[in-house]
Amino acid sequence: MKKTMIFKSNSENDTAKFAEEIANNLGDFKTVCLYGELGAGKTTFTRSFAKALGVKSRIISPTYVFVRTHTAKNIKLYHIDAYRFESIDSKDEIKEILGEDNAIIVIEWAEKIKSILPKKRIDIEFIYKNKNEREIRVKKSI
């Protein structure tokens, strides 16, 4: 099932509120895939999403380490940046993370690892309109 919802963001604060709403309404979804060009809002979203889950550590993009692990309450949050994924020899580590039961996974540049993404996920596309405005499209796939 795929239903697209569209959200308009006119500021980082709007994006933060949107991220909190997603985090607070995950249900049984555990993988959130983020799409959009550089500067579109993926990391800004992830910071607020993590905060809403109770993560206290600083959220920075894991571009060069590929995966950062954070803990909150009784869950692990994996923050994956697949931007440079083609330089990784094996996708096994990512596949293992995607299979974890008690984890929530946020993947920036998810299109780079499309072949291993779970079918059940939330896809969020950030469309840069101008310096302050973003269109954010959300699809839940089952």
Essential attributes:
Rossmann fold; 142 residues; alpha/beta; globular; 32% strand
Description:
The chain is an alpha/beta fold and 142 residues long. The protein has one domain (4-141): P-loop containing nucleotide triphosphate hydrolases (Rossmann fold, 3-Layer(aba) Sandwich), CATH 3.40.50. Helices cover 23% and strands 32% of the residues. Strands 1-7-6-2-5-4-3 form a seven-stranded mixed β-sheet, with helices on both faces. α1 (12-24) crosses α2 (42-53). It is globular and about 40 Å long. The chain starts with a strand and ends with a strand.
Total individual domains: 1
Broad CATH class: Alpha Beta
Shape: globular
Compute the average pLDDT.
Answer: 84
Q: Sheet bearing the most strands, described?
A: 7 strands, mixed
The CATH homologous superfamily is called: P-loop containing nucleotide triphosphate hydrolases
Percent of residues in helical segments? 10-25%
Relative strand content: 25-35%
Strand order of the largest sheet: 1-7-6-2-5-4-3
Order of helices and strands: EHEHEEHEEE
Give the beta-strand count.
7
Distance between the termini: 6 Å
Helical segment count: 3
CATH topology: Rossmann fold
> Structural class of the secondary elements?
alpha/beta
Low-confidence stretches: none
